[in-house]
Amino acid sequence: MPRILIADDEAAMREQLADALRAAWPEAEIVAQAVHGADAWDQWLEHQPDACFLDVRMPGLTGLEVAQKIQGRCPVVFVTAYGDHALQAFDTGAVDYLVKPVEPQRLARTVERLKQRLAQPAPPEAQAQALQALLSRLVPRRPAQTETLQAGIGKEIRLIRVADVIYFESDARYSRVVYREEGEQREALLRTPLKDLLVQLDPGQFLQVHRSIIVASSQIASAVRDDAGGMILKLRGCPDRLTVSRPFQGLFKGQ
């Protein structure tokens, strides 16, 4: 039973697509419906669906940016509007797309393509390369990322430099930040959920390695595999060990 993720910030469009999918692909299961990009990425990590239908324009992370993070690990169908700047580029065949409002005949062709891809999947590396070639032309450069974070330490509000952060870890509704200050390792709680933090951080300096962990790439000393197929990160000057979940182990193939 194929498992599907839908992401669209417009409730009416989300429901219309879900209903159309149930009719066109009755054996598929819609495991999650996300209302914005960061939520879509969080839902992808939780459910690891077989295919995703992503609205191109969503707040936070766009559908294009979510696809970048998926890195070819499942087929992506972009849902877009007439006149969208990306529409012509999608015709390259690197990905599939649907135009709002979704037409049943067009969706039926998309479903057939997805069935073929799922029956004979290309290597994730090949999918990722084709997708990256397309998205590198479409995803706009983000503005400068945040440089400081506000964290609660007892009754004090502390300003923490992002440059001092070692890693973040989700803690229920909050995020725990582990950082260095004056040569000592410290920690504090942020009121920002991890999925919202991800949008604020420079992807060139931070890696998500688990649904609940984001680590500063400069703080990673090594990635160690165990006999059970798991992976642990060792950090520079920090005794903590971080678990790398399976979807992210490909980040460390060269280590």
Please characterize this protein's 3D structure.
The protein has 7 helices and 15 strands. It folds into 2 domains: 3-138, Response regulator (Rossmann fold), CATH 3.40.50.2300; 148-252, OB fold (Dihydrolipoamide Acetyltransferase, E2P), CATH 2.40.50.1020. Helix 2 (37-47) packs parallel to helix 3 (63-70), helix 2 crosses helix 7 and helix 3 (63-70) runs antiparallel to helix 6. The chain is α/β, with parallel strands linked by helices and 255 residues long. Strand 6 and strand 7 (156-161) form a beta hairpin.
- The percentage helix is 25-40%
Tell me the Rg in angstroms: 20 Å
CATH architecture field of the largest domain: 3-Layer(aba) Sandwich
Largest sheet: 5 strands, parallel
What is the CATH H-level superfamily of the largest domain?
A: Response regulator
| Total domain count | 2
One letter per element, helices H and strands E, the order comes to EHEHEHEHEHHEEEEEHEEEEE
Enumerate the spans where pLDDT stays under 50 for 5 or more consecutive residues.
Answer: none
For the record, the CATH class of the largest domain is Alpha Beta
> How many DSSP H or I helices?
7
User: Strand arrangement, largest sheet?
Assistant: 2-1-3-4-5
The backbone outline, from C-alpha atoms, is globular
Number of DSSP strands? Answer: 15
- Ends: how far apart? 35 Å
Mean pLDDT: 85
* CATH-defined topology of the largest domain: Rossmann fold
Strand content bin:
25-35%
SSE class: alpha/beta
